Amino acid sequence: MNPENIIEVKNLSHSYGDFRAVDNISFNVKKGEFFSFLGPNGAGKSTAINILITLLNLQQGSVFIAGHSLNENPKKVRNSIGIVFQEITLDRDMTVYETLEFHARLYSMPKEEREKRIEYLLNLVELSEKRDDLTKNLSGGMKRRLEIARGLITKPMILFLDEPTIGLDPQTRMKTWDYLREVNKSGTTIFLTTHYMDEADSLSDRISIIDNGKIITTGTPEELKNSLGKDIIYLETSDDNKALKILRDNPEIQDAVKKDSHILIITKSDGAKILPQIMHTLEKNSLKTISVNLKKPSMDDVFLHYTGRALRE
Ligand SMILES: Nc1ncnc2c1ncn2[C@@H]1O[C@H](COP(=O)(O)OP(=O)(O)OP(=O)(O)O)[C@@H](O)[C@H]1O
Question: pTM to 2 decimals?
Answer without folding.
Answer: 0.83
